[in-house]
Design brief:
By secondary structure, this protein is an alpha+beta fold. It is 18% helix and 38% strand. The protein contains 4 helices and 11 strands; from the N terminus they run ααβββββββββαββα. The longest helix is centred in the last third of the chain and has 16 residues.
């Protein structure tokens, strides 16, 4: 079922549907800073200042998708006016941005890099850890510290086992499974 047909069924009122048109379009350019784009349509030609987010206010709160240039989208024309256009469906996106109520970006997902680059809270805490590599290094360090020997004038001294680091570090000791990459 096409999006247009699904909306007709969901809304159920022909008079409301006449106030809203869905149009297939191709992304020509994106003004990411202003959260706007320019599209080309068969029915209306080129339309400028198409909003990337539904709300018409200047609030930056919420999730916004940056469409890929030359990708197909569906735009909604409020009151059937090209001057009141907003993207309602994407076929390809380059970026996602999530901002808090103060307008601060708390999540940025760049889908143009391979693999996708994800920055949470501005990256203030640095990169995430590849947990298995960390556990392996900690286990080697724990092993060295447990079996460490000193050379003394009267011969080598060996750990008596009282300094053993046990049990060995495991992934579950360090992992936060609520955030994965």
């Amino acid at each position: 079922m096409e999006l247009k047909e699904a909306l007709k069924r969901a809304i159920g009122h022909e008079d409301l549907l006449r106030q809203f048109a869905l149009v297939d379009a191709t992304i020509k350019s994106v003004d990411w800073d202003n959260r706007l784009c320019t599209v080309n349509t068969d029915e209306y030609g080129e339309i400028d200042n198409v909003r990337l987010r539904g709300a018409g206010d200047n609030n930056t709160f919420g999730l916004v998708s940056k469409p890929t240039v030359n990708s197909l989208v569906v735009i909604g024309l409020l009151y059937n006016q090209p001057g009141n256009a907003v993207i309602v469906s994407f076929t390809a996106i380059d970026m996602l941005s999530l901002c808090d109520a103060s307008g601060n970006e708390v999540l940025n997902v760049d889908l143009t890099s391979n693999p996708a680059k994800i920055v949470w809270n501005g990256g203030l805490n640095g990169a995430t850890v590849i947990i298995q590599n960390l556990v392996n290094k900690l286990n080697r360090l724990e092993n060295v510290m447990t079996t460490h020997q000193h050379t003394a004038p009267n011969g080598p001294t060996v750990s008596d086992g009282s300094q053993t680091i046990a049990p060995a570090t495991t992934v579950s000791d360090l992992a936060d499974n609520n955030f994965k990459h």
